[in-house]
């Protein structure tokens, strides 16, 4: 390049010719170099460490090959992109929703959106009835390595398997059972089968729970279903009332029957024992009579008179020829005295 007046503009907007740079230009170059070196050093320092949160695990790769899984805390790695780190939330319980989506919070209540998800929730039961089933699969990532590299889309596989298992579980039962009594059983079966599929495909996912949310008939038959449900509840109420009444009446009747039987048995025992006592007394009298007939006869006569006379009011003697009656015994006066003595 000639010296005919052609000049070159440097980075700072100053023109430079053939003359050497001045002291100000040297200071500018030095300042720029310091800034560049500082930025490079800061980037180097920042790229040499990483922090793993308590609910996470970090998968460290060096040139694309996994070298370790880091636990929570501060760790160091090779800079300049030699080591790459991927964070996986292994201690957090995640969820997948089917038939609805959580829309957010409105005040203290969670809002849900159920529009547009009928392709997930509408199912056919074993008795060919349509059922609208909404459920949630809660899971956690047990193995970060398998979750990241075991298959391409593990979450998508979880959703597909969950939907397939739930449709089979609902299709093997009656619609009335799905709506009422079989919900817990369906949840347990779905959880076990989904977990078996996750282990078979090495996804690294551990299924925690499968919870059925709203299980209702489709909106088109909802009024008819409500009427049937009300009729069933009325039937259960009447059965409960009948059972309650039976539980009250039957024990009372059994108690009265037991009391009557006990009274009859007591009366029978009393009559039998009385008859046995009379028989024993009669036999003893016969034995005494056979040994001393006159004495026994006299004693029996006196005992009978002693029992009969207190019941007689008055005894008078009237002569055959007429005359005033004479009192023979004042039994009416003697009877109270005898009672007083007794």
UniProtKB/TrEMBL annotation:
Name of protein: Protein HflK
Function as written in the Swiss-Prot or TrEMBL entry: HflC and HflK could encode or regulate a protease.
MF terms (GO), sorted A to Z: peptidase activity
Species of provenance: Pseudomarimonas arenosa
PANTHER family: MODULATOR OF FTSH PROTEASE HFLK, STOMATIN-LIKE PROTEIN 2, MITOCHONDRIAL
Oligomer status and interactors: HflC and HflK may interact to form a multimeric complex.
GO biological process: proteolysis
Domain Band residue range list: 47-229
A Pfam family per the record: Band_7
GO CC field: membrane
Its membrane topology: Single-pass membrane protein
Transmembrane segments: 29-52
Key words, A-Z: Hydrolase, Membrane, Protease, Transmembrane, Transmembrane helix
Subcellular locations according to the entry: Membrane
Primary location: membrane
Segment forming the signal sequence: none
Protein origin, superkingdom: Bacteria
Matches recorded under SMART domains: PHB
UniProt family annotation: Belongs to the band 7/mec-2 family. HflK subfamily.
């Amino acid at each position: 390049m000639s010296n005919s007046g052609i000049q070159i503009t440097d980075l700072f907007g100053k023109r430079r010719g053939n003359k050497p740079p001045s002291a100000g230009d040297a200071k500018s170059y030095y300042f720029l170099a310091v800034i560049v070196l500082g930025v490079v050093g800061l980037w180097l320092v920042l790229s040499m460490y990483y922090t793993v949160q308590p609910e996470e695990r970090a998968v460290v790769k060096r040139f694309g090959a996994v070298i370790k899984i880091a636990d929570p805390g501060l760790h160091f790695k090779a800079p300049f992109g030699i080591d790459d780190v991927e964070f996986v939330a292994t201690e957090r319980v995640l969820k997948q929703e089917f038939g609805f989506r959580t829309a957010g919070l409105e005040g203290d209540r969670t809002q849900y959106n159920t529009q547009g998800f009928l392709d997930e929730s509408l199912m056919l039961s074993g008795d060919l009835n349509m059922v609208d089933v909404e459920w949630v699969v809660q899971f956690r990532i047990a193995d970060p390595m398998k979750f990241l590299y075991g298959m391409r889309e593990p979450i998508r596989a979880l959703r597909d398997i969950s939907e397939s298992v739930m449709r089979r579980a609902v299709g093997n039962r009656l619609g009335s059972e799905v709506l009422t009594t079989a919900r817990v059983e369906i949840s347990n079966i779905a959880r076990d089968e989904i977990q078996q599929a996750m282990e078979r495909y090495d996804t690294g996912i551990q299924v925690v729970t499968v919870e059925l949310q709203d299980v209702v008939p489709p909106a088109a038959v909802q009024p008819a279903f409500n009427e049937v449900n009300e009729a069933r509840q009325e039937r259960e109420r009447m059965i409960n009332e009948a059972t309650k009444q039976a539980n009250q009446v039957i024990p009372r009747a059994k108690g009265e029957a037991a009391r009557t039987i006990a009274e009859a048995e007591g009366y029978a025992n009393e009559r039998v024992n009385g008859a046995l006592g009379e028989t024993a007394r009669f036999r003893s009298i016969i034995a005494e009579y056979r040994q001393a007939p006159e004495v026994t006869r006299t004693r029996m006569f006196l005992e009978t008179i002693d029992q009969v006379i207190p019941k007689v009011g008055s005894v008078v003697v009237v002569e055959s020829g007429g005359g005033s009656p004479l009192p023979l015994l004042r039994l009416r006066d003697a009877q109270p005295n005898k009672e007083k003595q007794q």
